């Protein structure tokens, strides 16, 4: 009889813990995707891409890359007719063009990274507030980062809802 009571107790505890887990509502969210998918972030990105500094950097990069390609084609077609000094001078020109293109590329990446950080800093708190409101409205008890989850149903992903709420808050 004592073994039966122990067994019933173990089964009861097991069923209770399973029902407790089943009562939890789990959701996933990619807050960065929600932020960068918002209208405010897209407007900031577009504004930056059309800004004079970014346009100038992009033109410099494209010009240097075009120079490098042109120099490479020239070397391919004429290198057999060049003297040693001409080949060395041409190689030096190619190295300078490559360095210019790489520098402009790094500057563009730095500008983009700085803009992304500014957007996250500006919209992050608003996105967190939007997420908290959605979590409360939908009765979510556990939130996981989308990048930490292998498989999730589309219904459990709050990213689009957060982006929509962020759009409403930043009109």
Overview of this structure, please?
The structure is a single chain. The protein is elongated and about 80 Å long. It has helices at residues 2-23, 31-36, 39-49, 52-78, 84-138, 159-169, and strands spanning 26-29, 142-145. A two-stranded parallel sheet has the order 1-2. It is 77% helix and 5% strand. It is built from 6 helices and 2 strands, in the order H-E-H-H-H-H-E-H. It is mainly alpha-helical and 171 residues long. The model is unreliable at 6-21 (pLDDT under 50).
Short summary:
The chain has 171 residues and is mainly alpha-helical.
Could you name the key traits of this structure?
171 residues; two-stranded parallel ribbon; 6 helices; elongated
Instruction: State the end-to-end distance.
Output: 69 Å
Q: Provide the gyration radius in Å.
A: 29 Å
Q: In what range is the share of β-strand residues?
A: under 5%
Uncertain spans: 6-21
Structural class: mainly alpha
Kindly report the average pLDDT value: 88
Which geometry do the CA atoms define? elongated
Strand order in the sheet with the most strands: 1-2
**What is the number of helical segments per DSSP (H or I, 4+ residues)?**
6
What is the N-to-C succession of helices and strands?
A: HEHHHHEH
* Helix content bin: over 70%
Number of strands: 2
Q: Main sheet, how many strands, which sense, barrel? A: 2 strands, parallel
């Amino acid at each position: 009889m004592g073994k039966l009571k122990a067994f019933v107790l173990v089964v009861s505890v097991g069923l209770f813990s399973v029902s407790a887990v089943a009562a939890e509502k789990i959701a996933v969210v990619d807050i960065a995707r929600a932020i960068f998918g918002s209208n405010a972030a897209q407007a900031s990105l577009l504004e930056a891409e059309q800004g004079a500094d970014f346009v100038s950097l992009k033109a410099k990069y494209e010009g240097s890359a075009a120079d490098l390609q042109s120099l490479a084609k020239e070397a391919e077609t004429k290198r057999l007719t060049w003297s040693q000094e001409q080949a060395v001078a041409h190689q030096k020109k190619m190295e300078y063009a490559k360095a210019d293109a790489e520098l402009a590329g790094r500057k563009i990446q730095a500008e983009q990274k700085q803009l992304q950080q500014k957007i996250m800093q500006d919209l992050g708190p608003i996105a967190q507030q939007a997420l908290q409101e959605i979590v409360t409205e939908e009765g979510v008890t556990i939130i996981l980062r989308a990048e930490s989850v292998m498989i999730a149903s589309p219904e459990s992903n709050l990213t689009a809802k957060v982006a929509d709420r962020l759009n409403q808050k930043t009109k």
